[in-house]
């Protein structure tokens, strides 16, 4: 948590993002240890004038400095692989949201419910309220229940877009003609902001994503007022 604050990282809103942050800190720690060690060695080399005229090779030290980095890499590779498979896991989702990237807005479909679909455009700066987030708020937010497994299906209608929400550890490309799937779980209520992160044209920067994470009964109330019979 202290490292997150130092690096000005956002708090996680899902278990997957929490794991991603842990992994980042783990890799960063190894990186710092290597940098300090190599930095110290290089620094000290400038301030000694010992020369060994007969030193051509050292079997033992060469063995050590070949195998040691390989072992260090394993300590990064194995947790990384664990996370990779964890991110791809689908855990019996209770709601499915389909998000479609367009130039330059997102549209959403709640395929479990009858005809609940809408477009989600960025609010232009001149129409923003005083407490609004510039370039980050949208006219129609995604409403989803907290403490539930949610499946996201991502695709695109024109060019490649990317549905990215940092607080949830979500980053899925929307590709025309393909349907990508992921899964997330929001462990607290709140507004979670994201942006498209695949260079998709002139207004790439202006197709933000906003998820309104609400308790389950609020979600049921919202969806039942929007379902067409
Ligand atoms: Cu859509 Cu960048």
UniProtKB/TrEMBL annotation:
It catalyses: 4 Fe(II)-[cytochrome c] + O2 + 8 H(+)(in) = 4 Fe(III)-[cytochrome c] + 2 H2O + 4 H(+)(out). PROSITE patterns: COX2, COX2_CUA, COX2_TM. InterPro entries: CcO_II (IPR045187), CcO_II-like_C (IPR002429), CcO_II_C (IPR034210), Copper_CuA (IPR001505), Cupredoxin (IPR008972), Cyt_c_oxidase_su2 (IPR014222), Cyt_c_oxidase_su2_TM_dom (IPR011759), Cyt_c_oxidase_su2_TM_sf (IPR036257). GO terms for molecular function: copper ion binding; cytochrome-c oxidase activity; oxidoreductase activity. It is a multi-pass membrane protein. One of its GO terms (cellular component) is mitochondrial inner membrane. Residues 92-225 form the Cytochrome oxidase subunit II copper A binding domain. It comes from the Eukaryota. Residues 1-91 form the Cytochrome oxidase subunit II transmembrane region profile domain. One of its GO terms (biological process) is ATP synthesis coupled electron transport. Its cofactor is Cu cation. Binds a copper A center. It is found in: Mitochondrion inner membrane. Keywords: Copper, Electron transport, Magnesium, Membrane, Metal-binding, Mitochondrion, Mitochondrion inner membrane, Respiratory chain, Translocase, Transmembrane, Transmembrane helix, Transport. Its main location: mitochondrion. The chain crosses the membrane at residues 27-51, 63-87. Component of the cytochrome c oxidase, the last enzyme in the mitochondrial electron transport chain which drives oxidative phosphorylation. The respiratory chain contains 3 multisubunit complexes succinate dehydrogenase (complex II, CII), ubiquinol-cytochrome c oxidoreductase (cytochrome b-c1 complex, complex III, CIII) and cytochrome c oxidase (complex IV, CIV), that cooperate to transfer electrons derived from NADH and succinate to molecular oxygen, creating an electrochemical gradient over the inner membrane that drives transmembrane transport and the ATP synthase. Component of the cytochrome c oxidase (complex IV, CIV), a multisubunit enzyme composed of a catalytic core of 3 subunits and several supernumerary subunits. The complex exists as a monomer or a dimer and forms supercomplexes (SCs) in the inner mitochondrial membrane with ubiquinol-cytochrome c oxidoreductase (cytochrome b-c1 complex, complex III, CIII). Belongs to the cytochrome c oxidase subunit 2 family. This is Cytochrome c oxidase subunit 2. The gene is COII.
